[in-house]
Amino acid sequence: MKLDSKQCEAVLAVLDGGSFEQAAARLHLTSSAVSQRVRALEQVLGSVLVVRGRPCRATHAGQRLLQYLRRAQLLEQDLQAEFAGEHAQPLSIALAVNADSLASWFLPALAQFLLREQVLLDLTVDDQDHTYMLLEAGLALGCISTEAHPMRGCVAEPLGVMRYRCMASPEFRKRWFARGMTRTAARRAPVVVFNRKDKLQADFLLQHLGLPADAYPCHYIPASEPYMQAICLGLGWGMLPEVQMRELQASGALADLMPDRPTDVGLYWHRWKVQSPRLERMSATLIQAARQVLA
């Protein structure tokens, strides 16, 4: 069985754009023509590939196809670049990254490689416990995740441990935890949470103080720099990675509420076993840099 390139192109356009109308505009076709191509490929494969909704999304079979098409597209672009030499177009690579890595070590680790190899990043930022799903869904070609086990056809390489500490401003500690971080005080003290996927603070409180979720007030601030700024301004306490806040702690702007109870989060780089040469080199660069920075 040989896949029809135009039908595959239509499926990609629908899933990238989220609708048949967007796909039609991108491919300079009518919505009906795009729908016919998608339906024809579904008939050939014997599976529904796209859930028709707003937005359109891939079925499980569609995710498998999307994984293949993304990799095939990248391999083709990489091959074209080899023949084009210095006139090659930049190569765009879709990756899924956790916010704390992106805010600290990720870009410095890859900057020289991206410039040298003419690679463009197409990043999706999500919680480290959820980036794996983006790789599984075919929306990324590599991801940083807490998941240690690779899915079929992939490799998971350990990057190291990101150590988090329970931090607050000195003024906040004096106001709320003058007698230490007790269960009673933690019930009343505001917590800064990244978003509703972020379980670091909830897990810490449950493990060390036996406090269940929703037993304490929370701010939700879903951006790394504003999140850290909120803690420095005394709005609440939160878990911060050592690699991101060492200078602030050294300057006295942040205080460790429980210095003997850090939280270690192991990170893994997931990639396909068969990948383009540039993605292979990027993976090696990323792994080497991460192991120098992370515990």
TrEMBL record:
Keyword Transcription regulation included in the entry's annotation: yes
A family per Pfam: HTH_1
Keywords of the record: DNA-binding, Transcription, Transcription regulation
Highest taxon listed in the record's lineage: Bacteria
Stretches assigned to the HTH lysR-type domain: 3-59
Family: Belongs to the LysR transcriptional regulatory family.
Protein name: LysR family transcriptional regulator ArgP
Native source organism of the sequence: Undibacterium arcticum
